[in-house]
Amino acid sequence: MTYVSRILMGLKSPTTPTVFEALIDSIIEQQISLNVARSLEYRFIRKFGLKFQVEKKDYYCYPTPDRLAEIPLEEFRSCGLTSRKGEYIRDIARNVVHGELDLEILKKCSDTKKILESLCSIRGIGRWTAELTMIRGLHCMDAFPADDIALRRMISAWYFNGEKISPSKAEETAMQWGTYKGLASFYLEVAEHCGIKPTLV
């Protein structure tokens, strides 16, 4: 990790403008590869987001809770999402619109455990989805999605010679990164995307 950090020094983990956006993206990415997830998110935003033009070029805003609250489930399926994910997204959007769910208030909470519990209390949100949301939407760098198969594979490549490891082993390894476990996981993801290979240097 020291080697990766040195190469990627100064790289900052991106944060979404709203917790809602991070949560919806994390739901879309549940149990699928990152490449497939990016393709679905691309379609999702262009189908439901507000379009505007700048110098004849199209840009899209992230879909708002108001917009998503009214979407029929079959419309979500047309983007490649499952009916269940469509239900989760629409239910969350409706709860936000009706004032039953305030995701942005989580930005005022400094207790990672309480944030995790709050997110996991939402229908369709498990620990992995909550932790991913915390990293992306709240910049909680001490959150660590140990259940992420791809992340475990990356940790295995760097620390265990490619041997398959359990979530608990990944968590144990990440403990050495302290309160920057989430940032370290982001660095590993970028390193893989950039083709940076494990080395003893």
UniProtKB/TrEMBL annotation:
One of its GO terms (cellular component) is protein-DNA complex. The keyword Transcription does not apply. The keyword DNA repair applies. Pfam families: HhH-GPD. It comes from the Archaea. InterPro entries: Alkylbase_DNA_Glycosylase/TA (IPR051912), DNA_glycosylase (IPR011257), HhH-GPD_domain (IPR003265), HhH_base_excis_C (IPR023170). Residues 28-193 form the HhH-GPD domain. Transmembrane segments: none annotated. Keywords: DNA damage, DNA repair. Coiled coil: none annotated. GO terms for biological process: base-excision repair, AP site formation; DNA alkylation repair. One of its GO terms (molecular function) is DNA-3-methyladenine glycosylase activity. Belongs to the alkylbase DNA glycosidase AlkA family. This is HhH-GPD domain-containing protein. It comes from Methanospirillum purgamenti.
